[in-house]
Amino acid sequence: MEPEYSVICENLSKKFKIYASPNDRIREALSFSGKSFHKDFWALRNVSFRLRKGVTLGIMGFNGSGKSTLLKMICGYLAPTSGSVITAGRVASILELGTGFNREFTGRENVMLYGGLMGFSVRETREKMEEVEAFADIGDFFDRPVKLYSSGMYARLAFACTIHMEPDILVIDEALAVGDIAFQHKCIHRIRSLQKREVSLLFVSHSIGAVKSLCQEALFLDRGRLVLQGKAEDVANYYHGLIAHREQEKKEAPKNPPVMKKEAGETKAAVRGKEKRIGTGEARIEEVRLRDDGGGVLEVVEFDQPVSVGVRILARVDCSPAVVGFIIRDRFGNDLLGTNTAVEGRSLPPLRQGEELLVTFRLRLPLLKGNYSVTAAVGHDPDQPAFLDWWDHACVFEVLPPASRRTVNCKVHLPIAIDVQKKGGP
Amino acid sequence: MLGLVASFRKFLSRAAKHHQVIWMMVQRDFKARYVGSVGGILWSILNPLLLVAIYSLVFSLVFGRTIGETPFALWLFCALLPWLTFMEILRSSVGIIEKYKNLITKTPFPSELLPVVIIGAALTNHLVGLGVLVALLLVFQPSLGWAVITLPFYLLCLSSLALGLSWIISSVNVFIRDVGQVVNLVLQLWFYLCPIIYPASIIPESYQYLLRLNPFIFITEGYRRALLTNEGILPVDFLYYLFFALTALFIGGWIFRRLKGHFAEYL
Fold first, then answer.
1. Which residues from A are below 8 Å from B264, CB to CB?
2. In the 8-state DSSP scheme, what is residue A407?
3. Nearest Cα to A151, choosing from A126, A185, A174?
4. Chain B neighbors of A75, CB-CB under 8 A
5. Per residue in A277-302, pLDDT tens?
6. Per the CB < 8 Å rule, is A116 touching B175?
């Protein structure tokens, strides 16, 4: 194995055998004739990747995409059906909210046991004990059986125990999801210090933010196959896009956009055309563009630059759209800015078939540098969640950092006046 | 044959590698049994003593107050003790994989070592009982001879048969839950097939060979030879027992290896 890598997976596949009953399983395992009693299920298929030392790899994917199976094979707890996985150094893991803890043992005993499993002598583990106890910070519970722990305490102990075992490769499966915010911060801090020490990390998470901030590289699994592999940022964005897509596929009625008034009621909206679009289709948003004052199309804007968001709508039949709106979202999908014509008190003219309507919103973009997207919609009635057309991520743009030396710390930076007063003193 | 030796070597090297973890688990098991109970270690002494008392009360009426020159109770205790250990190992094997499920699915601990943990715990318990037995013997019949040194050998023999059977019981039970019931039934029957509560001599000469078919008699009678009559190991009985122990290890090892890969998926 080349020394610069810590994990090499080659054409890794895992087939689970699905049995109708446990008896079938044992009949097959112990039969000499080789008769088969199962159906095959491929949890992972032909996954290949290499992880360099000191690199943190995010693993993303929907439930059941094979993430945990992959991790278990990297740790060596599951044998691959075909292909190979080679790891260099000591592998420590936090799988499915916990490690190999025995519920009857106390926290301390479990740490001793885990130390032994990781190949440390009793003395060496004892030396680590104090640090583990301090990091877990669960008080008296450290000397009580693990079965009495809350899930948060369990995660604390698992995390504390694992990271103090001097791993060369650390595998974390959604372990940060439990535990309070303070502990999460502590963990992230600790993970960063491990990263500095050339520890390779494999990190499964559904949190796009966590993957973007902790990982350098990422891969995306879908139904057992490796679909995308690359920079963490790109993979996380891809995942984010897929979620948006799935949500809309699932729901016939679209989610109410925050800028339009919420109203319960069923809508027969047809999903049509491109994936991210919903609506009856009586009118269609043809184009959403960001333009500067001169009318030139913008893809990169400067901080606080005055721009216009133009929404061009084509009527396919005679219709009277009552409301046109837009939302600007950041890469995490947070709604930052947006409004619609109804909220702003502007009425719209009825349209005949083939007529076009251009609605232009003028605004400034005092946003933190980064990538943003514009979602636009046209609706019948501001009080009904019925859309003629709803277009997610209709266009994307990038905001540059402010040209002046001023820094922007928050997502949105509106002009703020500051008064400073000094009182008292000699 | 070569593969067999190789896989057994692998098992031993794994056991050596994880000896510390095994030892911790044995300690833990021992502690769990007594820590938190008021009686503490007293229970592990009281339990066999009570059993000995009850059996003695009933069966000494039939077989007389002494066997040879030994009080019936002591004579019984000598053979009952290894049997109780054997029984304890097989009974604990039933649910052991489920009990340590976390260890199997989330750590590199090799599951074939779990029976070793059970055996370790049972032997620790055995030593407590043996201490009591030896103390009683010294009081009532101060005739402990050199043959006592054969006891560890008998324990090794007991453990190897138990290990093979434990592999079968623990692995099959993951998939077929009836194993526990079958084990209980077989143990009941087996107990009465062993001359533990009755002397072998009560069986008519023409049927003695039937009694000798039971390999475990090597252990129970061996204990009596070591502790009471100060006699050494019978080589023919040993070879006969060895055959069974090796067969159990072979079959148990084979079954366990075949089923092991399914544990993580099934648990």
1. 72, 77-78
2. -
3. A174
4. 108
5. 777 888 889 899 999 888 888 888 88
6. no
